[in-house]
Amino acid sequence: MAGHRPWGTVCSTTIEAQIAAMFPLETASHPEQLRRVAIDPVSRVEGHGKVTLLLDDDNHIQQVRLHIVEFRGFEKFIQGRPYWEVPVMVQRLCGICPVSHHLAAAKAMDIIVGASQLTPTAEKLRRLMHYGQILQSHALHFFHLSSPDLLFGFDSEASRRNIVGIAASYPDIARKGVGLRKFGQEVIRLTSGKRIHGTGAIPGGMNKSLTLAERDSLLKDIYRMVAWSREAVQLIKEVHQHNPALYDAFASFRSNLMSLVAADGALDFYHGKLRASDADGNKIFDQIDYQGYDRIISEGVKPWTYMKFPYLAALGEESGWYKVGPLARVQNCDRMNTPFAEAERQEFLAYGKGSRVHATLAYHWSRMIEMLFAAETIKELLHDEDLLGDDLLVKGERRSEGVGVIEAPRGTLIHHYRVDENDMVTMANLIVSTTHNNQAMNTAVREVAIRYLDGRELSEGLLNHIEVAIRAFDPCLSCATHALGQMPLQVSLADGQGMEIARLSKNADGTFCAG
Amino acid sequence: MTARILIFAWGNPSRGDDALGPLFIEQFRERLQQKPVLRDIEFLSDFQLQVEHALDLRGREEVLFVDASVNCPTPFSVSMLDPTRDESFSSHAMTPQAVLQVYVELQGSAPPPSRLLAIRGEHFELGTDLSSSARAHLDAALVWAENWLAMELPG
Question: How much is the pTM?
Fold first, then answer.
């Protein structure tokens, strides 16, 4: 399934030594003498993730790696197809964020058809669709993926750490979570035309607008969604205040931040230019046109994984890696243009006391602020009569290459295509948010391993600490299939020669068994 | 008006045998064209099963879940489902039993009687067609479904 290793056979001892110096705990000096523990795959994340730990005889951590089994066939899947099919096709890359791929591809194809500026109706409809996607994805992530860990505790009984446990103990939270998710899905259905596999965005614009009845049906519920989103922000703040020592320190590490911002520096999920800042908030670059993304972002490779490690080219591989997603966006922008969200953002910034917040669990807090921003923005859009217009398409001078970038729920999403004179895609390059966060997630896992696992006997609760750190980034690992019977969790212990000496398996229903 | 029977399938149509669920919906609906029973059935499909699908179960008398399976007997298996509090689900996928449990918690009542039709699949690569073995399994499952429906909605 995986593609070729683009770095070929470059895997020398020299490079290993250089990497070891740059990223502590990435590569142990004598791995052959260590025990190996694998968490495979990480549960409650998309696709397949695997964490391998190398321990010495005293259970001290010597090496930690997050392996993401990224499916590298996406670009090939797209090549040879007519460009106008791509915004629809790419939705099948991922069943969780199809709208993000749909819109990023449509934006790239806008460039191909010469649509440098969409009509107001088309752009606002796309924005509505996208903010609906942000709302439903953030609601799903927080209420159904992370809140069990946050509300019950990382060490709590494994059988309770799920949405059913939340529904039983916190029925009101669960009900609102499902309601927010359902509303976001409804926004997507009405703007894209279908519940799934919608075709709303097409190169140069949209193929339908909202009817008055559709708009009114959303207006009826949006005020409740804003109210519930405000409650969600209060909930996550309470969680932080309940145990600030944990939430401030857990997997906290400094890094650069990158995101799109609007021309005035405001947060904009749909469109803008690239901004990066360092760990203290000083701008590295600002207002960079993403058509030239490949001049400012380079992709590093490592001999132990297929997944690339993007970094800011100007800073180099060692210093140039960065975080994307809610924690980056909320701090990288100058403001949020909705009142409740901006007030919450200011409170979040104040929590940092003038410094950037780098705590991994603050992803949840910032994610809820973004959910509130999405709900408020949807409310404003629904009051805009342009949504009901019928001027939906523009075209201009045909081009052969286009890049589309949006801020997807998990972070910056880049789609880059070349199209030949027969309208067929000849090249596709996608950089998804999980790839941007690759180094950050590896660093988070290492921080947790050292703090909570080093020198201790491993247990399910301790291993869940690692999963908690990964989940905070909301990785979408590989868009794998989810046929019944797939996705077990395996933890294996191996000796220095790689011989397995013990194994713990997690079945599809979540039960553990020794094997 | 809510249809009495919900048939809910999931899978990615572009990933080989993962398309079994959506194809089942497509072909079963075709087989029922022109038949009066069609008005009593709602067909839904999605990439994955998710929490909000619990809301789609409201007001049903019977639910049939359909998915590809990597480990059910060949060509398919049918089993009754009970709400189950497990932790199989992620933000990306849930078991049908867990969806039933969410229904219980949200609605405060028992879910409608629900079955799982698991159709054996073998190959799940992106961009590939349904395998020949999965095609045969699908045909067998469709025959079963017609008989099942004839019992549920006689006449």
Answer: 0.85
